[in-house]
Amino acid sequence: MATLTREDVLKLARLARIDLSDEEVEEFAGEFSAILAYVEKLHAVDVDGLQPTSQVTGLTNVMRDDVVKDYGYKPKDLLKNVPRVQNDQIKVNRMIG
Amino acid sequence: MSQWQPLHEIADNVRAGKLKASELVSRSLETISDKAEYQAIIATMAERAKERAAAVDQQVAANQPVGRLAGVPFIAKDNFLVYGAETTAASNILRGFMAPYQATVINRLEAEGAICVAKANLDAFAHGASTENSDFFVTKNPHDKSRVPGGSSGGSAAGVVLDMAPFAVGTDTGGSVRQPASFVGCVGYKPTYGLMSRSGIVAMASSTDTVGVLANNIEDASLVIDVMAGKDELDGTTIERSDQPYTDLSGEINGKKIAVIKEYMGEGLDQLVKERINMAIVKLKNSGAVVSEVSLPSLQLSLAVYYIVCPAEVSSNLSRYDGQRFGYSFEGAKKLDESYMKTRQHGFGKEAKRRIMIGTYVLSSGYYDAYYKKAQTVRTKLINEFNEVFKQVDFLVGPVTPTTAFKIGENTSDPLKMYLADVLTVGPSLVGIPAVSIPAGLVNGLPVGLQLMAPQLKDSELLSVAKAAEGIIS
Fold it and tell me: Which residues of B are known catalytic residues?
């Protein structure tokens, strides 16, 4: 059975880009171990000769022509929900330095 | 009985000038206000709804054609993008988000004259089975205010039973339309995967996300399905709809082969719920259905498969909430990475974090094969078992939930216990088949739902037999 340590949870939080409080780390470590124990019943299932399914209706690549279609949206309206806008551009936080 | 007439009658009366769309919208908004204590609604969209109603009334007065849902008010779960109100998915991270475009299915409903009056509460991002995971408040069950209405479409389901509107739209990823319908006592329909466009709907688990309907009866649900169904160039997973209307319901049950799922009637099922379901099945048999029992052994694994596949897809879909492009953004971060970490810490509720983290774990290097790939392969096994059974029978039947509505707070301390509320609904979701919850009476004053399922694309057949069943068992 997989048991998740504090360090495991912190590593996952880092991968998922979520800061966690100390209480959350403790709580999740216990809960995740229980949830993983439940789903681990799949380990014993015989799936010899079967392929994984990720799409249930049998669609494969859905193609369309690569043409610009005007839906009538204005850039100003589309930018309304953006936290920080400058010159009609999305301003992001600094990455380096 | 509902204060609302059947949907086609409402529309007929509006078209004939006997009912005004504006009066219907006012009645809906008044009921929402009168029953505010149940907390089914996050926001009303009174202004836009009244404008749209006035437009419908003017079209009628000018003898212009109006649609098949002319003047019919409805409620949308707050994970549908709709003009005129915020779309929050009941999450703090989307608080204040105004839809810059509208969901395809909402456009289709509006094109037929339907009018969205309010946005309903849900578990944040549709993660849950009780609305207790809403970042805002918990919706109360109309039958007992100390109990949950189910979820995640709990606000939509409660809104229909409280008569706030004659129908509501919801999403069903692992049971989120059927389970609340069962808990509050209305019809909850989940169509074949791909029949409805998800464009403009906040994504949860894309391989099982579907749009469903909550309504007073099957006939109403079928009309709404008929209006919404079909391919959409904005959602590549959509499939061709039937060339026949979904409203042509024979309501015939005589001779239909219906099989009881053995695994659904066993351990964990409340004894009184079981008796109620057995009574309903006897009634179907007495009406001419050919009832048998089948075994789908892998159904016992379906919840484990779902709680790997779903968090994996959730972790991917929720990566877009980065505090840069839309939604809540943590102020004061010096660098991009810090902004991501803090925005997601403060913006997401506990269940969203839980699912993102579990999903990250099962997709991470070293665990991907053991968890995610294995789950998707067991999913194939489950699909094969359903395909085999559907060679012998037309429909499958069983309960929707193992118990009636639970108490608010009863399952919140144990996430695994909460996940078990979905144990009977995730199977059809993973297989992509249509399934419906129809009211099957009460146990100790609380509703019980009967679940019927059909093969993929047999939505018309399922709606037809469900119509017969609702007349027999309710």
Answer: 77, 152, 176
Question: Alpha-carbon distance B447 to B225, whole Å?
Answer: 24
Sign of the alpha-carbon torsion through A76, A77, A78, A81 = positive
Q: Do A57 and B432 touch (CB under 8 A)?
A: yes
**Domains of chain A by start residue, with CATH:** 6-44 (1.10.20)
pLDDT in tens, B406-450: 999 999 988 888 999 999 999 999 999 999 999 999 999 999 999
Complex prediction ipTM? 0.95
B23-74, pLDDT tens digit by residue?
A: 999 999 999 999 999 999 999 999 999 999 999 999 999 999 999 999 999 9
* Cross-chain residue pair A31–B207, CB shorter than 8 Å: no
Could you tell me which chain B residue has the CA closest to the CA of A38?
B304
The pair of three-digit structure tokens given for residue B308, joined into one six-digit string = 């790997």
Answer whether B188's CB lies under 8 Å from B437's CB. Answer: yes
> Which of 3.90.1300.10, 3.40.50.720, 3.40.50.2000, 3.40.720.10 is the CATH number of B7-228?
3.90.1300.10
| DSSP assignment of A9-21 | HHHHHHHTT----
Query: B76: which strand partners?
Result: B119, B169
Please state, as a whole number, how many other Cβ atoms lie within 10 Å of the Cβ of residue B175: 34
C-alpha angle with apex A7: A4 to A13, nearest 5 degrees?
Answer: 90
